[in-house]
Amino acid sequence: MNLLGAAKLRRQLRALDPALRKHMPPAIRRGTEEGVRVAKILAPDVTGETKGKIRSEYKDEGMTGVVVAIESDATRAEKDKAYSIEHGRKKGQHGTTEGYHHLHQTRRYLAKKNKNRMRRATNKAVREAARRG
Asked: 67 with 39: CB under 8 angstroms?
């Protein structure tokens, strides 16, 4: 699950004063872990394999959190399988299937909540900076 405008947001967060950045990683971690929990709930449960692979990943000293459904170094067959679970299969030797869209639904469900969470963390950092003068 990637955030739209993530590169611009990453640049803006790097430009923040390091003292103010301390409020963002805990909020990002809470939002990402919540995303993992929701994605695991929405993921199809046939063998439990899909749910077991969903995890979180953090970059940029905790300033970026990503919900990962499959490892980036996975084989092509595993990536195809994960893609067909998420988006469905439109053609091929095995017929067509409908996708579960569990990661898309997770992103849509948590978008407003995470946006407000980041806003609160930013406001908290600004209030703290104003108190220090």
From this structure: yes
